[in-house]
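Structure tokens please, single chain.
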Amino acid sequence: MKILVTRPRADAEELAKLLAARGHEALIEPLLDIATLPGDAVTADGVQALVFTSANGVRALIERNGGDISALRALPVYTVGDATARAARDAGFADVVSASGDVNSLAELIIARVRPDIGPLLHVSGSDVAGDLAGQLTEKGFTLTRAALYQATKADSLSAEAVEALKRGEVKAALFYSPRTASAFAALAGDIAPALGRATAICLSPAVAEAVEDLPGAASWRDILTAAEPTQDALLAALDRFVERETRPKASAPGESASGASDNGSPLPPPIFSDSYDAPPRAADSKADERPSWGSRAALALVGALLIGGVAVYVAKPALVQSVLAFDWLPSWRSVIDSSPKLVEQPAPQAQPAPSAALPPPTDNSGDNVDALRRELAQAQAQLRDAQRDAPVSPDSLTPSDLAPAETSPPEMSPEVVARLDQLEDKLGQLADRPVLGPESLRSATDAVSSRLARLDESLSALTQKLEAQTAAQERERARAARAEALAFTALALRDSLDSGAPFANALPNLRPLAQEVGLGADADLAAPAAAKGVAGIDDLRARLMALIAEVMRAEAGPPDTGLFARLWRSLSSSVVIRRVADDAAILNAADPADRLFSRAERRLAVGDLDGAIAPVELLIQRESLTPGSRQALEAWLTDARARRAAERLAAALLQNGLIANQGSGRAPGAMR
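Here you go.
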């Protein structure tokens, strides 16, 4: 049978092979021309899977990438149908899953199997797409990126070969896979539209059938058939049913030719069962012998015995008969019912013209046939006796009406049952055509799964390392922030004690370790004694130094004189201290006069230079002429002065390091809590 194939040429050639295996001749008439669009090679950076809605997309991807898709073969692939899945596997993709349906089925498959948070999907398609795959997936949180790699252009006319074949009625069926192809054919039908009344359109889906029905004028197809589901296997199953219906032979009696004659050319007696029978007219004045022949009588006896046996078995075991009748062991109940002969009532014998001579005696061959019929009758009678023996009731209780054959035709099945049986047949055909995975295919699939698991393990390890690095960075940030706050808190506590003389004992636990970090551990030891009482102020140190100057100067003058003039001098010197003014640039030593050393200390202290004030006092305390009381007082003053100097240095260093640490933690200066 000649079948018109309207698919693009690459797909049509594959389909033609399948049709040839079924004994059909494919007339390839591509209504869409597929051309790969120019552009850069396709990469899949960050993509978790590929999506194909046509085998043309697989071929376009290979062509766009110059035949090298090795970097993409490790990705999972989801396809709209089995033909596209086969094209993907042929291209080297190992992890391929087919939706075996349409775009809606593909969307449901992806939503059920893929997590949207792993990464985007890459839809390899043509410039025009059918359905709303992107909308359905986006609604579920997926990111679908479309790569339009090819363009399908409609044909502008039908070939002369196709036009002539359709006009001559050679094309019995036409296969349509998409609404776009169907509408393109309907638009090009033109003058040949009336000839389509002798062809049947077989469509992949109802949408395709609706498009192919729109023929110009009043033209129409002989019939339009739709596959049970939108797959190529279902479409070919619909074609098989169409071919079976068209090529089914008409029922005829055994030994009867199409003209109703026997093999030797003589007329045959009327059959007992037939689709239709018109009795030949007989003349009313026929005087011929109207007794049936031996063969007819034997056949009637056999049929009667079988009917009686069947009724008896049904009476004995009705459940058994019903289960046998309900068992679906035939290929198609509908084909059996359509091809089974119907029981019709034999017409009453009528008079025929008398033959010119008596009927000839039976031949040897006729006797052999009668003997065979008699043996079959004996077997039927034996089976009847067995059924009678097992029957719960006696056959003698049956009335003639119970044994009479039914005059009705076999019951017809409902359209719903017929449709369901057709679907089951299609499913069985698809299972039979589905290839069985061999060892190599299973090994390839296992390797693909192992490869994907390895990639997932690598991704998990990378994420774990990244998380650990982020955690460590956060810990370092928290430690840096805590250190900055501790530095600032201690520095502010010291500064407050320096300004107001308040104690800083609450900051002392952090003082020593922080001072060690900034290299001022010795200053922390010097400042620690002042933590409980507070740091001595500049004014306090200056007043105490002035009192010490008078006491030391008196000690330097020697033992007191008891004379009147000496007493008067001591009285005046107790209220007025006279000392020389030393040059601040001069270098001091322990041999310098005491008033000179005190003068240097007082002036440096007046300008807040503790280092300049402490140095001359340290020289004074080395003098042996000091009284024990003066020496003790000078040592106490030095301790307080050194503690203040250490506190000032610590406060400045800690505050500076706190600001640096605070900036390193990413906070704005002054943002410490």
